[in-house]
Structures are given as structure tokens and as C-alpha cells.
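Attaching the record inline, Q. Sequence:
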Amino acid sequence: MALASAAFTVAGCWGAGVWLIARTGAKLTRAEKFPLALVTGASLVHLFVFAAMALHVAFKPVWVIGLAALIAVGVRGSRSGEAVKAPGDRLKPVPRVLFSAIFAVFTVYYLANAWAPEISPDGSGYHLEIIAGYLHAHKFFRVPTNMYAALGQGVELVYAPAFALGRHSAAALVHFAFLIALAMLIAAYGRRIGKPPAGAAAALLVYLSPVVGLDGTTAYIDVAAAAIAFSLFYWLEIWDGSRDARLLAPIGLLAGYAYAAKYTGFVLVPFAMGFILWRTRRWKPALLVGAIAAVMIVPWMVKDWIWFRDPVAPFLSDVFPSPYLHPITIQGWSEFLRRYNLPNLWTLPLQVTVVGKTQGIIGPVFLLAPLGLLALRDRAGRRLLAIGLVLLATYFANVGTRFLIPSLPFFALALAIALARPAMVLIGVVALHAVASWPAVLPRYSDPYLWRLIEFPWRAALGIDSREKFLQTHSFRYDLVHMMNSEVPAGDRILSFSGVPTAYLKPVLMQSLQAAPNSALIDFLNVALYPQWQPTRALVFRFAERPMRRVRLLETARGHGLEQWNVHELRFFDRGVEIPRAPQWRLRANPNPWDVQLAFDNSPVTRWRSWQTPAPGMFIEVDFGRDQNVDEVRMETSADYAWPIQLRVETMNAGAWTAITDRFVEQAIEYHGSMRRAATYELAVRGIHYFLIKDDDWGAADFKDDPVAWGMRVVGFAAGGTLFRIDLKDVAP
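Structure, as predicted:
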């Protein structure tokens, strides 16, 4: 069923592409027409699925009828036109036979992996988890617990019909079709420029690359992003040869689709517009491409604005604040992605080609990539290197190896052009690359924990071994998923420090760093776990008694890095007596106004946090609703609020804020109740009744050794983790 569902979806993309190609009047060879139709048509299918989701009609009959109609249109269109003869010479017999044999062997190996149950970390995680949620609801909806739902999902929407009909493996098989299309396009481009050996060799350099083979046989999206980028380049080359204005349509669609697939693909919009402006010296066609691209881009920006209050969520969360994303989480995540804990980025060439501590390798042969500069002597080589560098410009935002995939075809072609003569050199490089890329060979020279394909799962692909058996044997943490599906009602929420293959999970897993609501809940547990996060300090600001209606505590210092301003409680006193909090109080905070109540709830484990680096102008404000005599402000905080503190108490007088004092004394405070039960109480009153702790999570031993101290009870256990139940009656004070 998975293979049939994927083929049905791919055929629908092909049909939409054939229809569009017919409207452009493009003269394509047979080798060009299928892959260009598939990738270009995918952009239209993505719009079709987006519309169905937005209109709340994402049902199976819609996919069946819609894709069947596109296939019918494609079949009709394919009969109406004739393919042109391929330019250039064909490969000579020896390299043709050798290259075909290598391609066939790897294709069989890849097909088995794509067809087997999906086990990749992100493929069996958020890529398909979010799509599964949309399909279950038959529409788009806000996913406040997962920031990845804010990213463009242009490729995942193409997976959606296949997933709806054939589940997880069908999505991976659709991605594999993009990989086949990419290899075909690279080879076809070599023939188009009269260099078929270079095209065929470059196709194999990309196709055999270990990280490409792994990515392209899972429900990831990087290979699809590369196919979109290369298809755009291909259409630009075709347009440059004819200057037919009708060809601007697929160019604009693919430029915008690159953004919808992956934010970093946005660089292709100005590239396409700039290329057309350069070649025509006219603004009108360039602007037309931009307008067509906007058809693909704007719907995603509107969706993010509606659901996350940020048109490019989760980025720019500090510019477009929302209760769903914490700026400091995005900052910390981004800093990790820029380094992957590497002490020295100068080691990146070896890491991405040989070692693999940046999640996979492209293969040792790409250490020869600088030789591709020799292709600058060739017109095609110059263009390939130009777009390759444009795509590479975004790489250092995430130095994971797979983020090189979109630029890899262009550098591979440039290298192949540079090494094309004598032919035996090119043949030798491809043969060496094939040997070095074979999965069984990789552990002999790369990191022993290299992210790679491991085996040939033909029994699982053909259904001889059950999906459940394969997942339990091969999928990391699937046993935990199986246990949670058995113990927790579908749709109920489970809080966790880290993740599992959520695409197979029926309840909703709230992972710590994936969204602001999750992080806030996890913070309650962390406060109970770690003394340095507990309210042990009181900063006491004393001044002459005065009546005030509005008072605020203003931050006047600038913090550094991932520091935060933390306020467990903010209290006000008059003559040594605390002013009781009242319903008429109006509370404000900047930033993070949504959590300000946490600084006024008398709970030792909750706290208002800035969730971004402290900066002058941040404040917490109280409007008492009437004049109130005050002579002391007390801020309770923790030891992790450690940088030089510069706060000021201000009051509102005659419409302007007036400084009262910035001097304070620090006092030690102590809480005598159970921090652990206080934390689980806060979870329970917010409707969180399940908590998953994995054996390798920080603090795991504390939860597992004494769940009674937390007011939890064990309801499930599987290899790698424990599931706890939290009942309000067990933790209520």
C-alpha cells in the first residue's frame, strides 16, 4: 500500500507538471521532461494540499479525486507533445555500463530503506507528526506545543496525500522519488551542455553520497529542497536559451516553492530575479517572477502570522513576541546549530566529508571540491558555481552535513566538469566514491556513530516482517511510544524533557524546548530539582512611604548570552506589612506579558522569566486600581540570576514614570514545604497528568528513585524510560 500510495502521489505531481509544461511550450527531452514535471508539479500539488487544509476539507476522497484528475491531465498532455532529441553525445559503452550498474545497485538498496517503516529521527518525529495531526483534524490548526509547526512545510504537504493513503513509508518513498528526479536532472543537464560524462558522473557523486542516500530515503526534506533548487536552475537555463516569457511561470513557482520547502531557500528568489534582470536588463520580467513566487510564499507567512503572530516563525520571535515561542530558546538552538559543539569550525571540511560528527558525511571524494574552481573556465561551470555559492551562503546558520545537500549538485557538476578529461580520471573518482559510500564500508574510516544507512531491510519493505517488529528492533525509543499508546488516551498530553518518534504517537508529547508552554512547565520541575533555581534570595528596595497607584520594577542593565531575568515573586509592603494581592490589580510585563501572573501566585516553583537576554527597558508593572501607600518592594529570585543586578523602582506621577530608588539589600529566604510536590501540583492544575522521563534525561534518577516524593506513580515502563501519572488529589496542598 505504501508503494502504491507514493506512486499515486508522484504521478499526481507529474501530471500537474506536464500540464504546466504544456502551457509553457518548453521543448524538453524525455530525460528532462519527467523529473522537471515531477518537481515543478509538486509545487502545484503543494498549493492544492494547502488549500484543502485551509478550507478544512483534507479528507481522503479529496486526495484521490484531486490526484486522479491531475494524472488524467498529465496523461493527456504527455500524448499531445513530442519530446525533442537530446543534444550532445551519449556516454561511451564502458562508463555507461559501469555507471548504470552502480546506480542500479544503490537504487535497490535505497528503495528497500525508503519502503521499510520510517525510523529516521526527524522523519518519524516532527516532519510526519505535524502532518499526521493536520490529516486527523482534516485542516490546519495551531500547534502551540511544537515550534517546528511554524516552519514552511511545502514538501511535507506533498507527503500528506501519500501519508493519508499509505502512512509513514509512503512519505519516505515520495522523498525517494525526488532523489531519483534530482539524479536524472543532473545527468540530463550534462547532456544539455554537451558534457554527458560530467553530468552522469556528477549525478552519481550526489546520488551515492552517504548523507544524500540516507536523507533521500526518509521523510526528511533536504533532498527535495535540492531537487527544487536544481529544477529552478534548469528552468532558468532553458529560459535563457529562448527568452520565452511563458517560462517565467515555472521559474517563479519554484523560486517561491524553495522558500515554502525550507526558509533558507528564500535566497533563490532574489537569485532568480537577479539572473533575469541581468540577462534582460528589464525589471518587468524579474518582478513578474517575484510576484509568482509570492503566490507560494505569502500563504505560509499569513499562516504563521495567524497561528504564531510571527510571519517567519519561529525566527524573529524577539521582534514578533508571542506566547508560543521563547526568544532565548531560539537563540540557544541557533547557537548550537552554528557549531554542533565543534571546538573549531576549521575542521568542518573533514567533518562533513570523512568524520561525520555533524550528522552524516557527503563522502571523501568531496575533499576534491576546490578543484571545481577549474570549471570557471567554462560558461556552464561559472553559472553552477554561482548558484552553488548562493545556496552555500546560508549553510553556516546550520552546519549539519545535510544542509549542504541543496548546494551539492552544483559543486558536484563543477567538479565533474573540471575532471572530465581524461575520462578515466572521472570514472575512477566515481568508482572510488561508490566504494567509499557503500554502507558497510563507512564505519572503516568515519565516526563509529555516523548517521548512515545500516542495512538492507528487504523483508520489512516487502511486509514479510511486521511493521511493529521492525520498529521495535530498529527505531530508537519506539518501545516508549508503544507503551505510551497503551497507557495514555489519544490526544492527552504528556510532558517530557526530550523526544521520541512522535509520528507514531497517539497522545501529544510536549517536549521541553519545542515551544514556550512546554519550557514553562519544565521550568517548574527544574526549579524543584536544582537548588540554584529555587527562590533563595530577596532583593529588598526600601524608600520613604508614599501613595502610588502604578509601580514598576525596571531593568536598567544589559545581560549576556543566555542569561535571563527571573522573578519568583514580587511583593509590596507598607510599614512591614505585605499588601494583600487583590482581583483589581492589573499586571503587566515586558517582555513575556503572558506569564506575569507567575510572579504573583505565591508558588515557590513558578517564576516569571524574561525568556530573552535582559536589556534596559524590561519591566514588571502593577496597577493597584487605587492609591496605595508603599514603602518597600521585595523581589524574590534565585541564584541563577547572577550578573550585576541593576534594577530601579519607579512610580507613575502626572503621566510620567518617576524613579524612586535603585538601591536594595539582599536577604536570604527559605521555603519549608515540598518543592517537588509543589511542582507536580502546578502541572496537575494545568491539566498535565502524564510525565515521561527517559533514562538519559537530566534528573532521571531523582524521579525514578522516589516518585512518591513528587506525588507521582509509575504507570508504564519500557526500555529507555518511565511514564508517570500525576493526579491532582495526590498533590493538592
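Residues 2-82+90-444 form one domain. Residues 152 and 262 are 6 Å apart (CA to CA).

More tomorrow.
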